[in-house]
Amino acid sequence: MALIFAKNQYTIPRGRTFFNPIDSATDEYLGEIYMGNCPGFSISIETEKAEHYSSETGLREKDASVVLEVKRSGSLTCDNMSGANTALFLSGSTGKVTQAAATVVDEEITVIPGRYYQLGLSALTPVGARKVSVVTVKSADGVTTYAAGTDYVLDADRGTLQILSGGTIVAGKIKAGYTKAAVEWEGIRSGSSGELRGALRVASDNATGANRDFYMPLVSLIPSGDLPVIADGTDFAQMQFDADVLKPANGEAIYVDGMPLAV
Known about the structure:
Elements: E1 15-21, E2 33-34, E3 40-54, E4 61-78, H1 83-89, E5 93-99, E6 102-111, E7 116-118, E8 132-139, E9 152-155, E10 160-163, E11 172-180, E12 183-189, E13 196-204, E14 212-224, E15 239-245, E16 255-258
Antiparallel strand pairs: 1-2, 1-13, 3-4, 4-15, 5-12, 6-11, 7-10, 8-11, 9-10, 13-14, 14-15, 14-16
């Protein structure tokens, strides 16, 4: 009878990635963020060894090797440019920005013809006012009212005013009036931390090969490389993260589990 060998297990890996951030104040998990399409995730392992060589004979030979250090890391590529993922890359937060309805009178702006100005800028509203209407632009003394389309143009959704070259507005101060609508939008704000701590989970759904889920209960997720904002060509934007895979106090660094067997 011929020898019997185990069947080779070939894999084309696919899966979904989840990150569960840890609250820095309470040290508790906040709940998993589904990161969407991540075309690449890999784990790297580096070891440092102490090696001993015998000096008992003329030929110096290695007779012992002891692993002293193991470093586990990962590299994650994601092209789901969601608000949550962008906030992760910026080590920040995402949420709703709410603008209350209000009427603004005589907002003073120093202008130069040909340039653009954001309405509603302040320390409390650093991105300014949006969704504005009933806009008036006057001279600093309030005597002259300037004409839209001739002296200035407006992006009402963004609240951006352009002073037209060739119009009657000269360099100096003007006064703008407008009405802000009650609206809200997604806002992402960068944070002060250069890393995020949490758990990383990959739920496998391979094109071929047995599915095995990977779970790392403690990783330091570090944004790496560029976040494309404007790009030439037709490539989809991607963001990349490096992950230091750490060993928690009461557990292992990496858990790999297959699918439950039928009973």
